[in-house]
Every structure is written in C-alpha cells, then in structure tokens.
Automatic annotation (TrEMBL), chain A:
Organism whose genome encodes this protein: Nothobranchius furzeri
Name of the protein in its database record: AP-3 complex subunit delta-1
Chain positions covered by the region annotation Disordered: 622-694, 714-1027
The keyword ATP-binding is annotated on this UniProt entry: no
Underlying gene: AP3D1
Keyword entries, A-Z: Acetylation, Coiled coil, Cytoplasm, Golgi apparatus, Membrane, Phosphoprotein, Protein transport, Repeat, Transport
TrEMBL record, chain B:
Topology relative to the membrane: Peripheral membrane protein
Keywords: Cytoplasmic vesicle, Golgi apparatus, Membrane, Protein transport, Transport
Domain AP complex mu/sigma subunit: residue ranges: 1-147
Compartmental location: Cytoplasmic vesicle membrane; Golgi apparatus
Protein name: AP complex subunit sigma
C-alpha cells in the first residue's frame, strides 16, 4: 500500500508536464497562488534529479510560470544545464527559458560562453539556430566580445537558415560590443547580395537599423541600396530600403533628386498599400530635404497629397490613420498643399476613432491662417464641450493653445478674442492644464501691451468669480488660472477700473483654501493693489478710501499670517507690518503713496527661456570650485535646501513643488497620527472638533460640498468668444469696404482698372489687419549670449557608440582595420580554458595590447607627415601600383611582427579623419551627379558598387576570422609571422634605423625573448612575455587565382564528425564565381553532403569572391576511425570572371586529417588527472625533442594551440597536459625541458593514436 | 525593431509574452495590464495603431495590434518598422499558427505556449523580422518538430486532447490585406 502511494507520487511527478500544469492551474481558479506554489516545490524536486528529461520538463514549466509573472531566476543554473543537453529537444527548451528570463545581470550567463560557442559550431544547423535565437535575447557585452568572431564565421555558413540568423544577431552584437562593427561590416555588406532572399533581407534589416541611428556613415552604401531598390521584388526588403533612404536623404539632397523618379514609379505601380505608403513617406522626406525652389517637384508633392487623400478617404481606419500621419509631415514644408484638404481633415475631427481625431488635431496646427483661426478654434471649442473623457479634452485644450500661440501668436488678429477663449477654457472641469492656460494669460498680458486693459478687466472678473472656478476640489488644476489672474491684476493694476473691489476679492477668506503658491501671489499682489489705491487717492482731500483700504488689509491679512505655507506666511506678515505702519502715517496725514509705489516700481520684461544658459562665464570664474571648505557630510538630509530660486522664466515659474509639499504634508500628518495613536497620553479629538479646523489654515479638513453642474458654467460678466467671431467678421467687412472706397478713390484718380483684384476673390492673408496695435515684446537675451547646441544626444544612447566611420573600410588603405580592432578569436584562448572570466579578460588584453611603447614623439610626427604624403600620392597612383607598394612595404617590414601592439597603437594615432576627397566619396559624388535616368543609374550603380567593394585594401579587412596567415610571399610563410600582416600594409617606409635593428631580430623573433621567471598554475600560462602569433590554418592549395587555407576541428558532440574550415582568398583582379568544393571520399572519411545529393557531387560554396577578398566556408566530414591520420584528395573548381572573359579553373588539393585534429581541448583538474594516470588503463610512449630553442611557456603554448592540449599543472620546467579525442580517448602528456632538450612522456588508451599524435608534435617542433 | 510581442485574451490573461528588452517580471505584468487596458477599450472598427503606452517605449514606440475572436496579438514597435508591414506580419504569424495547429484556437496557445514560442522564433528574432515567407516558416518548424520526435520524448509528446472551442474567425479579417505579395 505504502509502496503504491510512493510509486503513484513518483509517477505523478514524472507525469506532470506543461499541459498538466496548465490544466491544474485552470482547475484551481480559487486558490491559484497556492496551487502554483506546490507546483514550484515539485519543480524544485524535479530539478534536483539527474535525468535531463525531467529537468527539461521542469524548466519548460518554469517558462510558463514566468509568463504568469513568477520570478524564476533562481533556476538559472538549471536552465544552463538544460541548455547544454546534447539533445536538440532539451536544448531548445533550455534556450527558450534562458531567452525569457536571462538578462545582463544574470550571473550564470558567463558560464554559458563555451556552451554557446559549441552550439554555434554544431554541425546540426538547428542546434546553431536555437543558440543564435537564444543569444539574440540575452547577449551581454562579454558574450558579444567572446562570440563575435564565431558569429561572423556563421555569416558565411552553407545553410541560408543559419546565415540569416547570424546576420540578424550581428546587430545585437554591435550594440553590445561596438568594436566589432568595423571588422564585421564588409561581410555584412557582402550579405546584401546574398543569393538567398532571406539572408539578403536580414542584412538589409541590420544595415537599416544601423543607418537609422547614424545615417551619415552609410551614405556611401546608397548606390548599392539603389540597385537593390530597383531590382528587388521583395516588398519587405523594399520597404526597409525605402525607409532607409528616407533617413539618408536629409544628409544628401542630390540623393533625393535621384530617388524621386523610381519612387514615383513605384507609387504608380505597386498594389501593396504598405509599400505605397512608405514610398510616399520617403518622397515627402526627399521633398523636405530639397529646397522648395524646385518647380518640377510640385508634381511629386501633388501626387503624394493625392495618394494620401485616397488613404484618408478609405474606409479602412488603418489607412486613414497613416494617411493623416504622413500628411502632417508634408505640412511642415508644404502647408499650402495640405490646406486644400482642410475639409477632409476637419471631417476627421468628428471620427469615432480617437487615434484618428488626435492625428487630425496634429494637422490642424498647420492649417490655420489669420483668416480661419477663429473659425477652427470655434469648432474645436464645440468639440471641447462634447468630448467625453478628460484625456481627449485635455488634448484639445493643449492643441487650441498650441494653434493660437504658434510662432509668436502669428495668426491672432484679435487678442481680446484670444483672452476670452482662454477665459472660456477655464470653465473646463478637472483639466490638468490649468497651468498652461495660466502661462498663456501671463504671456499675452505681458507681451501684448495693447491688451493689458482688457486682460486686467477680464482677470478682475475671474478673481471676483473665483469661487466658480475653484468650485470644489483642491486638486482641480484650473485654479492655477487664479495665479495668473492675481498677478496680472496686481502688476497692471493701473488699468483696473475699480482696484478697491478687486482688492477685496483677493482678500476673501475663501482664498485661504487655495494652494499655497497661489495664496502667496495673492498676498503679494494685494500689496501692489493697495499701492495703486493709495496712489489713486493721492491729492484727494477725503482720505477715507485710502484708510478703508488700509483697514481692509489689516483685517484680512492675519488670516494669511497663520498660513501653513511658509511663503504665504512670510509675505503676509511682512506686508501686514508695512500696512500697519502706513496706517499710522495715514492717521498723521502723511503722504505715503509715492514711497509705497516705489516698492513695486519698474517693468518686468520677459526673458528668453535659454537666456540663463547663454550668459558667458566671466574670465577667471570657476563655477565648480568650492568657495568655502566643503561642508561635512554629517548634515542631516532634511536640511537640504529646497529650490528657492526655482526657474527664472519669463513668467513666474509654475511652482511645481507644491505637489511635493502636499505629499510631504500628508506623509507627515500620517506619521503624526500614527504617533498620536500610539501615544496613550494623547487625547484624541472627537469628530465634532473638526469645526475648529475651519478657522485654521489646515485647509484639507474643510468639508467640501460637491456641486454637480451639468450645464457649462457661464460666468456672468465674462464675454463669450463667439461674439468676437461675429465682430471680427464685421470689422473685416468694414475694413474691406473702406479699402474699396479708397480703391475707388484711387481709381477715380487714376482711372485705371488695375485695382480689381482686391474686391474680387477672397482676401489674402496680408489684407487682414490686426484689431489691436499688437506690440509683441520679444524675449530678452543676455548681452554677448553664447551660441549653444541644445539637442545633444543622450549620452546613454547605445547607438552613440555605433557612430563609427565605415566608409574608409573600402577605400584602399585609408584606415584599414588596425590590429586592436580585430575581433577576439578563439585561438587566443586555447591554453586558457580554465581561467575565470576576469582573468580571461586580462589575458586577452595582454595578448592584444602589449605595451611596449618606445617610440619617441618625434618619430610619430615624422610618421604623420609621411602618412599624409603617402595618402596624397596614393590617390594619384592607381590601384595596381598601390598593390605593388604594399608588397614592398610588407617585405621591408616583416621583421617587426613581434611588436604588434606598438604598431597598432601607432597606426591608431596616425589615422587621419577621412577627407572628402577620398575615392569613396568621389564615387558617391559621381553616382549622384548622374542624370536620374533609371537605366543609366543602374549601370552607374553597379559600377560604383563594384568599385567600392573590392578595392584591394579590403583584403585584410574581410577576414578578421582568418587572423591566421594568408601570406603572400614565401618569406612570410616560412616565418609564420604574418598574423600581423595587415598592419604592414598600411605601414609606410619609415625610419630606416629602426628597421635595421629589427632585422637583426628577424630570424629569432619567435624565441627571441628568453628568460624570465615562469610560473604556471592549473591551465594557465602567465603571459609575462608575448607569445608568438600562431595559427592553425595551413595552406591547402594555391595557384595564381586563389589561395586556400584550412583548419580542422573536432566536434565534441558527435564522435564521428570533424569540421573543416576553409578560407578562400582571391589573389587575382577578377571575380571568382561558382566555386565548387569536392572531395573524393575514402571508406573512413566522408564529406557530408546535403540530402539528396550523390556521393560524388560537389558542394557549392555559398559566396563569390570579388578581387582581393577572402571568405570562409565550413564543411563537415564524418570519420569512423580516428586513430590514424589520413589524406583526402579533392578539387576546387571555379570560374574566373573579368571584363573580357570568363574561364573555368580547377585546383587540386590534399586534405590532411592529422590525429591532432581529432583532439579537443578539454580542461582537466589535477586530481582527476592523477586518478586517470593511476587507473592503469593507459599505454605509455615517449619522445625526445632536441635543440628546442624557445622558452618553456612558448613550448607549452604551442602544444596547447597546435595540438589542442590544456595544461593541467606546471611546476618549474615540467608540465602535465591533457586532451581528449572526439571519441573519448584520453591523452596525457608529461613535458620536461632541460637545456634545449624536451622529453615528452605520454599515455593514452589507444597506442596507435598516441604514436601518431607524438609524431605530429615532433613534426611541429622540427619546423621551428 | 520590435520591442515586445504580447498575446493575451479578452480578459487580459497572458498567453504568450516575448520581450526583446529586459523588464523584471512584475514590470512585465504591469506592461501587460496597461497594454490590455489600452487595447481592450477600443472598438473593433477603429484603427489598429495606438500611441502612448507609457511603460514600454516612449514617444518613438507604437502598439500595433490585431484582435482575433478571443485573443489580442500586440506588437510594440519603434518607427523603423512599417506599420502596415507589422499588421501583415501578425497575420502571417497567426496564419502560421493556424496551419501548425490545424485550426488554431486559444486553447492551443494555452497548452502549447512553448510551441507557439518556437514558431514565433522563426518569424522574429531578437526584435527583428527574420522571415515573412509562411511556407519557409512552416517548413523550418516542421523539420525541428521531426527532429524532436526522433529524439523520443514520450511524456512530453503532444496530441490534441481537447475540443476546439474558439476557432479563430478568419472570415472577419480578410487575409493579408495590405498585399505584401511575396508573403
């Protein structure tokens, strides 16, 4: 029985898969959380089991729970375990989970690097695909750096499925590791012309994404994209390209001119709405970039507007929306063309769809003119009344204000009308934009002098009816208006008809319920009014009014003196004392008005918002320096000064801090209540005691009666804006009539019929004269204001780092890749497998940047000069010569190969910014200057593209993964030092002395630096000395057209597979096409061919090689026995194509599978290693190497690198090493060195394999 | 770039979430709620674009969605994507689901979230459109499914064991409207 239960529970545990979990959750709707927590417990149990299937199942369930909002990061390590399963099914589950919940700060991510690398190079394309997909979601800067090279290799994978994924993920890699952009770019560009449409589309996608952020760097690709645009039929690709052109045209108007015609053709021909829409968009961008003085483009603009009208009239809301969106872009530059569709746009204002109404509102902004402003605003005001929901209404409100205030109130002819519109808007209940209305009122009143009388009158009425506005709630944003009203009444009080009345209105007890910052303005402006009253009564023998005013102040101000708001309190008590003093003087009949008025004398002028920023800093003023000693840090935080002098804007700054104040108050009150509640000695107030509060300024406690008004408030005495529309109409008519009269007079005088155009047809803009003499005060700027860039980019923008100049990658030798720019390659780390990531990084830095700077400044300067000279001369010389020169340099300089860092550093410094005369740019110029005849341009584009791409300088650039040598001359091959060849190419003939010195070292530079204490720990080689550059790529075959190098690597996952990476390098000046790779299979080793092809079929290599370019392809071989080395015969066939002819060429080769290539670098710990040796299953063998003349750590590094071993332990001049074959054979080495003699004792469970490996090791060292 | 893909039903229950930018779990749920709130109050006959999800993105981002019977498919994209293109992409995705699940319904998505993810992975990768050709997508999905089957996974094997309740109303949404002809 008990057993049964146990068994049952185990079964259940095993059985509960994702579906069961989902079902369970659905069946436990009431206690879902509880059910899920038991499920999570089960999952935790499952994760503890060894069975990977159970684990995977658990992880799959976790992914579901993650969607429901559960944090599953605790299982991150288990996810990594599942990711590393050898079965695709589980791997996929693992990667899915990782992509859902890993992010940059997930610490286990750093454990995944090797796993991902393994998956990326898996022969199963779906393993690779899954890894790429996963990686795209959680790539970190570290992963990007470590894997960039692997991913780049995948960009030329044989399977398009992998290629397209690899291309796409490069964008993510660029974002995380911007240094990879330059080395990877040439290959990315190459993928634009990939035979597979999916890959092509991916490449377009990535470049568009890059170009969108930094368009100027991609201008040179325009010809290529142009070609694609005119040739591609894939709408997705077309859309992307056309969008890209939209981003490029603002930088190069000539490009726009060239684009117009093909785009217009597309607009006419395409049936795809999406494409049509994007074409229209780009045409608009082109038209914007072109100056408007192009008469022949009015047809294009008409076409766009006409097509957009069709979209807007469509019943499909989506098209309508987009039509309006595009229309608003045209509006900016061609308002006239849009204005003719005013009817349609106004119609959209009534649409049921809010998105569409909002878009239509955007358009209205540009549709207004002096003539129709009032009419449009009237319509909007109607909408405001009708609108449901505050968001749309608020949007309307801001739009009305935007429309009216745009370009310095350009379209307002009657400011009385505008003021009354603003006043009408104050009747909106619950709007958030009270402050916006307030600032408009202030702005208009300050800047339009003529309107002040009217404005002051209106504001006085507003103040008088303040209770209507503030109505009920504190939070009603509209009460901000009172702030403006009070200030205007106070500041321009001389215009007030009855200042006494307004003064009274401002000092009503109800005012104390307003927010603090408004009260403060009230108090201050009451004082101003008081001064005005005094002044008006001056000379008046009857001083009662003045005394009444003083009395009123003295009566009412104490209310404010009690205010909780500091500002209010301070101002009130100050003014109260002042008034009391004045009263005393008044009683003595002293004239005081002048003195009081002097308090508020002077006019306030508006200041430009940026004025403060533009004040030049005087000489000798350091704003960052401490004036006094820095304060100690012990000061309490509470004392942090609040922004007392907030912003000094033209208007009194909108006090934003009040909200904080309220919150803070609420918080404190709450805290106090808490404290009181916990204090047994505190006597709590009974509810009835609330009355007490009414007299005190604790405003919140006043019970508020909600008044529900369904009828819009009509404030008595306030004018309705509508009447202005009529008035305006009348005024204009009158004006027109007057004008006619004048005209008639003129005509009478002149007797010519020329004046006709005035009375016929609608009046033109200029005819409408403003109703007031508008005197718009301009904003003040400080003297000698500094020009400043305001739209600086956000420094945190990841795309900023990608602003990398890519043009000169193509132009010969301008700024080819420096060594430091190369992607980190796996081979660097062959001996470092056991390092922790931190150490790893260090090691890499060391190896890539050897700080051996001994150059003097002088030399560098010389170099710079020469560099310039060289550049000039290069431009003059043609490419052939260039190549020759390069070779020469390489010959001369190959002796310096042991100082890579020194060189690369120097070259980096020497780099001069690309000049506009560079060949590349002139190519573009040439292309752009062509007449925009499609057939012509296509040709030109091809030529330009062909010229741009295969410039000889690009050879090195395209193959950062082939960091291994592709030596051109035999000398280099011998020395195997050509890793740094690339730099040599750009090195010029320099300092001869230096060179001679170098030449001394030349032959020994591998073993040159002897001595130095070496200590090695488990698996690491401390790199005190630079390791010589090494490569596993060896020459496969070579003829005058092509050079082929290869490297073989075992596949850990599949004991019968090895991957052969082959680098093809085009050595000639022609295109190499249709390359096919074939190998004569042996019984033991077979080339894996795609399904359905015969055993003798050759494989097509998925790329072409332009002159000077190299690229890598990978081939998978299956092998049965790995204990013997073997050779496979093969042939490479290709077509050499140049302008005149194309020939078929063939190259035979022998592919050498060494036993070493079946070994895989596998880390091993010393204890495991010891056990292995003790086990006694291993057969031993040994060799001796004589005359080895290199430091021990170099020797070890060589064995590690060339023979895929890892160092287990090293003691002085003795080291143990380990490796493992793809079929699981253990190979152990004990390496000792004593005076140039190296003895290697080896053990392996397969003696034949061991013998062969040792032979190969011997051979390696006999070569050097 | 696509910033996020959300699928939820008429009650706001998530059926698939795929963020291409990191958000913590609670933030993800908040975004789902906000998005649901924005999308669900819209009529079916208004446009499929929405601006102003405040949590995700900002001014450059748009929500582009489609509503099928019981499910909302929402893509959050920036201005580098073509609006109509994304609408069609959603359609491609849904039609692919329909083919892979043979008359897809909400329950398929509920019980096979993982499979839906795998299909989505063939359409969008890391926030960028990977493939738009439906046949190619289906072919790749099927090869991988076969691969999975060959690895034998008895207790995770799936067969349809529930009734079809909500079959998507494809008749309402007329295929791929904006005629990206090469789909």
């Amino acid at each position: 029985m008990a057993l049964k239960i146990v068994k049952g529970s185990i079964d259940r545990m095993f059985d509960k898969n994702l579906q069961d979990l989902v079902r369970g959750i659905r069946n436990h709707k009431e206690d879902e959380a509880k059910y899920i927590s038991t499920c999570i417990d089960e999952i935790k149990q499952e994760l503890k089991q060894d069975n990977i299937a159970v684990k995977a199942n658990a992880v799959c369930k976790l992914t579901y729970l993650q969607m429901l909002g559960y944090d599953v990061s605790w299982a991150a390590f288990n996810i990594v375990e599942v990711m590393s399963s050898s079965k695709f099914t589980y791997k996929r589950i693992g990667y899915l989970a990782a992509s859902q919940c890993f992010h940059e700060s997930t610490d286990v991510i750093m454990l995944t690097t090797n796993q991902i690398r393994k998956d990326l190079s898996s022969p199963n394309q779906y393993d690779t695909g899954v890894a790429l997909t996963g990686l795209s979601c959680f790539v970190t800067p570290d992963l990007a750096r470590d894997l960039a090279n692997d991913i780049m290799t995948l960009m030329s994978h044989t399977k398009p499925y992998i290629r397209k994924k690899a291309v796409l993920i490069m964008y993510k890699v660029f974002l995380k590791y911007p240094e990879s952009l330059r080395p990877a770019f040439p290959r990315l560009k190459e993928k634009l012309e990939d035979p597979d449409p999916g890959v092509q589309s991916a490449a377009v996608n990535v470049i568009c994404e890059l170009a969108r952020r930094n368009p100027k760097n991609y201008l040179s690709l325009a010809p290529l994209f142009f070609k694609l645009m005119t040739s591609s039929t894939n709408n997705w690709v077309l859309i992307k390209i056309i969008k890209l052109f939209g981003a490029l045209t603002p930088l190069e108007p000539r490009l726009g001119k060239k684009l117009i015609e093909p785009l217009t053709n597309l607009i006419h021909s395409t049936s795809a709405m999406s494409l049509l829409y994007e074409c229209v968009n780009t045409v608009i961008a082109v038209l914007i970039s072109l100056s408007s003085g192009m008469p022949n483009h009015s047809a294009s603009i008409q076409l766009c507007v006409q097509k957009l009208r069709i979209l807007i009239e469509d019943s499909d809301q989506n098209l309508k929306y987009l039509g309006l969106l595009a229309m608003s872009k045209i509006l900016k530059t061609h308002p006239k063309s849009v204005q003719s569709h005013k009817d349609l746009i106004l119609q959209c204002l009534d649409d049921k769809d809010e998105s569409i109404r909002l878009r239509a509102l955007d358009l209205l902004y540009g549709m207004v003119s002096k003539k129709n402003l009032m009419e449009i605003v009237k319509k909007l005001m109607l909408h405001v009344d009708k609108a449901e929901g505050t968001t749309y209404r608020d949007e309307l409100l801001t739009k009305i204000i935007d429309i009216c205030s745009q370009s310095n109130y350009q379209y307002i002819t009657n400011f009385e009308w505008y003021i009354s519109i603003l006043v009408e808007l104050t009747r909106l209940e619950g709007t958030r934009h009270g402050h916006l209305i307030a600032s408009q009122m202030l702005d208009v009143a300050i800047r339009v002098k003529a309107i002040r009388v009217f404005a002051v009158a209106q504001m006085a009425t507003l103040l008088d009816n303040a209770h209507m506005l503030t109505g009920n709630t504190q939070r009603n944003g509209i009460c901000e208006v009172l702030y403006a009203a009070a200030w205007i009444c106070g500041e321009f009080s001389e215009h007030l008809e009855n200042p006494m009345e307004t003064l009274e209105a401002m000092l009503r007890p109800k005012v104390a319920t307003l927010p603090g910052h408004i009260q403060a303005v009230y108090v201050q402006n009451a004082a101003k009014l008081f001064a005005t009253v005094l002044k008006s009564q001056e000379g008046n023998t009857d001083s009662t009014t003045a005394q009444e005013a003083s009395q009123l102040m003295i009566d009412r101000l104490p209310l404010f003196v009690q205010s909780a708001n500091l500002e209010v309190q301070e101002r009130a008590s100050c003014i109260l004392q002042l008034v009391k003093y004045i009263q005393k003087l008044q009683q003595k009949d002293v004239e005081v008005s002048e003195e009081v008025c002097a308090l508020f004398a002077g006019e306030l002028n508006p200041v430009a918002p940026k004025a403060q920023k533009k004040v030049p800093i005087p000489d000798g003023l350091d704003l960052d320096a401490w004036i006094n000693e820095p304060p100690s840090e012990s000061e309490s935080e509470d004392e942090q000064p609040k922004a007392i002098f907030s912003k000094e804007e033209p208007k009194h700054s909108r006090p934003r801090h009040t909200e904080v104040d309220e919150k803070e108050l609420a918080r404190r009150r709450e805290a106090r209540k808490q404290e009181q509640a916990n204090n047994p000695f505190y006597i709590k107030a009974s509810p009835s005691s609330q009355k007490v509060y009414q007299e005190t300024p604790g405003v919140e406690h006043i019970p508020v009666v909600q008044i529900d008004l369904s009828v819009p408030l009509k404030v008595p005495g306030l004018p309705m804006s509508d009447q202005y529309v009529k008035l305006e109409e009348e005024r204009r008519q009158k004006e027109r009539a007057e004008k006619k009269k004048k005209d008639k007079k003129k005509r009478k005088e002149k007797r010519s019929g020329r004046g006709k155009k005035h009375d016929s047809g609608p009046e033109s803009e200029e005819d409408i004269t403003p109703a007031h003499m508008v005197d718009i005060v301009t904003e003040e700027m400080p003297e000698n204001a500094l020009p400043s860039d305001d739209d600086e980019r956000d420094p945190a923008d990841p795309h900023k780092a990608l602003d990398i100049d890519l043009d000169n990658l193509e132009s010969a030798g301008k700024r080819p890749l420096a060594d430091s720019e190369k992607l980190p390659v796996r081979s660097h780390r062959a001996a470092e497998v056991l390092k922790s990531p931190a150490e790893d990084e260090e090691g890499e830095n060391v190896s890539s940047l050897e700080p051996k700077k001994k150059s003097s400044k002088e030399k560098r300067e010389k170099k710079k000069d020469k560099d310039k000279d060289r550049k000039k001369s290069k431009e003059e010389k043609k490419k052939k010569k260039h190549k020759h020169e390069e070779k020469e340099e390489a010959d001369l300089l190959c002796g310096q190969a042991d100082e890579p860092a020194f060189q690369s550093e120097e070259t980096n410094e020497v780099v001069t910014p690309p000049t506009s005369t560079s060949a590349d740019v002139s190519d573009l110029d040439f292309w752009l200057s062509n007449a925009p005849v499609p057939s012509n341009t296509q040709e030109a584009a091809t030529v330009a593209a062909a010229e741009a791409a295969p410039a000889p300088g690009a050879i090195s650039v395209t193959t950062p993964d082939s960091e291994p040598e592709e030596p051109k001359d035999t000398e280099m091959e011998e020395t195997k030092s050509s890793k740094h060849k690339k730099k040599k190419q750009k090195r010029e003939k320099e300092d001869k002395e230096k060179k001679k010195k170098k030449k001394h070292h030349h032959h020994h530079h591998h073993h040159g630096d002897k001595g130095g204490e070496e200590s090695v720990q488990n698996g690491t080689v401390e790199e005190e000395e630079p390791l010589p550059p090494m490569s596993n790529y060896c020459l496969l075959a070579e003829n005058s057209y092509i050079k082929v190098a290869y490297d073989i690597q075992g596949n850990l996952q599949d004991g019968s597979q090895v991957v052969v990476s082959v680098i093809f390098e085009n050595k000639c000046d022609s295109f190499l096409k249709s390359m096919e790779f074939n190998v004569l299979d042996s019984l033991n080793s077979k080339l894996q061919r795609p399904e359905g092809s015969g055993p003798h079929d050759s494989l097509t290599i998925p790329f072409q090689l332009p002159p000077g370019v190299s690229n890598e392809a990978r081939f998978v071989f299956t092998v049965q026995s790995i204990i013997m080395p073997q050779k496979l015969k093969g042939t490479l066939t290709f077509i050499v194509k140049n302008e005149e002819s194309s020939t078929h060429e063939k190259l035979d080769f022998k592919l050498h599978f060494t036993c070493t290539s079946y070994l895989i670098t596998t880390p091993c710990y010393s204890d495991a290693f010891a056990k292995l040796l003790e086990s006694g299953d291993l057969k031993s063998s040994s060799i001796r190497l004589e005359g080895v003349n290199m430091p021990f750590h170099h020797l070890l590094a060589r064995i590690c690198f060339h023979h895929h071993f890892s160092v287990v332990e090293r003691i002085d001049s003795c080291a143990s090493m380990y490796s493992r074959s793809i079929q699981g054979h253990h190979v152990c080495l004990l390496v000792k060195i004593s005076s140039q003699t190296v003895s290697v004792d080896a053990k392996c469970d397969e003696p034949t394999l061991l013998g062969n490996v040792l032979d190969e090791i011997k051979q390696t060292f006999s070569q050097c | 770039m696509i910033k996020a893909i959300l699928i939820f039903n008429n009650h706001g229950k998530p059926r698939l979430i795929r963020f291409y930018q990191y958000f913590a779990e609670d933030m993800q749920q908040q975004i789902i709620r906000e998005t649901f709130h924005l999308v669900s109050k819209r009529d079916d006959n208004v446009c499929n674009f929405l601006e102003g999800g405040s949590l995700i993105g900002g001014s450059d981002y748009k929500l582009i969605y489609r509503h099928y019977a019981t499910l909302y498919f929402v893509f959050c994209v920036d201005s580098s994507e073509s609006e109509l293109g994304i609408l069609d992409l959603i359609q491609v995705f849904v039609e692919t689901l329909d083919k892979c699940f043979e008359n897809v319904c909400e329950l398929d998505l509920i019980f096979h979230m993982d499979k839906v993810h795998y299909i989505l992975q063939e359409v969008v990768m890391g926030g960028m459109v990977l493939e738009t050709n439906m046949n190619e997508i289906i072919a790749q999905v099927e090869v991988q499914n076969r691969l999975e089957k060959s690895e034998v996974r008895p207790f995770l094997s799936s067969s349809k064991s529930f009734p079809l309740i909500y079959v998507f109303g494809f008749s309402q949404v007329s295929a791929i409207k904006y005629s990206l002809s090469v789909l």
